[in-house]
Amino acid sequence: MFESARNSINANHAWSESRGELTEKKQPVSESPPVTGNRVTAKKKRKRKKRQESEKSSVSAPQLLCPEETLSVHGRKEKSGNGSEPIVRGIFQIGKKSHDVILTATRVTWTRIQPESPTGESSHKKPIEDFVELKDVFAVKVKRRRSAGQQSGGTLLGITLFFCKRKGAKLKDDTIHLDNLSVDHCEIWFKHLKDILSGFKHRPKSLKVFVNPISHKKDAYQIYKDRVAPLFKLADVQTDVTVTERKGHALSILMECSLDEYDGVVCVGGDGSVAEVVQGLLLRAQMDAERDTLSAFTPVPASLPLGVIPAGSANVVACSVHGVKHPVTAALHIILGHRQPVDVCSLSSMGVLQQFGFCVMVGFGGQALAVAERLNWIPPTQRHELALITALAQLRPEDCELSFIPSSTEKSDHTQSELEEHLSDVEDADWQVRRGLYLSLTITSIPCLCSVAPKGLAPFTRLNNNSMALTAVANTSRSEFIKHLKRYSSSNNPFSFSFVEVQRVRAVKLRPCSHRDDQRRDSKHTPIIPSEGTLTWNVDGELLEAQGEVLIRVHPKLLELFGTDVEEAEEPPVNCSCI
Ligand SMILES: Nc1ncnc2c1ncn2[C@@H]1O[C@H](COP(=O)(O)OP(=O)(O)OP(=O)(O)O)[C@@H](O)[C@H]1O
Question: Ranges of Polar residues compositional bias (predicted)?
Fold first, then answer.
């Protein structure tokens, strides 16, 4: 019955949506659905007339029922019930069959009209009913038949609804064609559908889009042009696209441009590009709120939600809010205005804010990224594998003092600002302190789902549970460490090792130590003594050298992402071939 929106666009069908165009060339009003077929016998004609009369008596097309009920989705009080009262009802052809179609404030429902049996008895079979929820409909267009090259006008065929259907975590666009040649009929339906759709105020109408042309396989622009831009156009979302020319380009635009005209920002690229746009949105919010980022401060949330179209290699942020690496899913979440507040962490060194992010690593994660940066002349996939192998070969523990404030605040009655104030107060809190050799420390504020870790990098982080997950991997043998890493992509628990400690925390402090008890050292376990106390951090895939003590804090719901809360990535698990 359905065909994909983009597949169904052909030379002879065109969609428009102005009411002007609907009435521009009136078609002869027909109260019955169009009938296809060349030869209609007199008997068939009589039968059809009889059927049409019986249909007309029950559902003449169109019937206006209770138009004020549409007010319910416009934020005003519903007059009665739950929006299930019919607004308008009529007959359309769907596929090749006549259907009784009903529009309510929340859905379009259609039921096949049962033909009478030759004996005049009506069928005892229960009519098949189907429906689409209007919250999933993202466009309604007038459907016309146009000859090749014809730009406007054309024969009215009916109206088409473009909607989103779900298969697991994946969203796909689909269409339902409501065919009827009557202009009056279509006009009434079109108007009501448009009114209802314009009542979904959380859907963006204008977006600032950043595309990183060098992400991963260098196909981000193509992905945007072929798979995302046509959907934005169909949904009448205005876009202002910047193809970034250098690192820092998106950040500098976000710090300067007027954001008032946009309802959201979209980033097409990998996690590095997302990190830059997140940084831009949050720094801009602090600048507009006159927050002093050179001191310990309580940040304000970003003013616009962010949509992430995955075009990188791991796509951790996209997978965490979509469950899949699928540009169409990401685009539909944006168009339908699905918003998910997310916790963000900030990393400060010597009291000065260095970066906002979702996933902060030091030790193995930082060392592997540093190697990858040095190998940037190698294509991305080979580079990441080679960097992993090199970092594993050079595996050395970091000698650190690790402190953290455990968190128990999963649910809270505090307001957003009270919660932020409470969590920002790290001075008077009870810090737990550990001193030791660590192979890897990972702190995440979101689950960080991806194909190499479908269940995420941490056992209990949610997108907005007001806390971060700290995974501390103490010094162990290389083979045990590899066993731990491999478990991320398998069904075994990567945290059930004696050398792995996981904590739910609201703040973490890490101080590199340069003196160790010499007794504990041997050639294998010689720790990295950071030069002048500098550690190499990996913040969302970007390298950061930070001197001295580093403080990482969680900031609940500091940003909204277009997407939803997902339990697990539905990407097929990928085992790293090199370990
Ligand atoms: N035109 C450009 N030239 C060079 N670098 C750019 C350009 N535009 C953006 N960047 C930078 O490229 C960096 C990497 O981007 P991104 O993460 O999207 O790609 P990737 O590293 O290939 O993907 P992944 O992180 O998934 O492996 C980002 O830091 C971004 O700021």
Answer: 1-15, 29-39
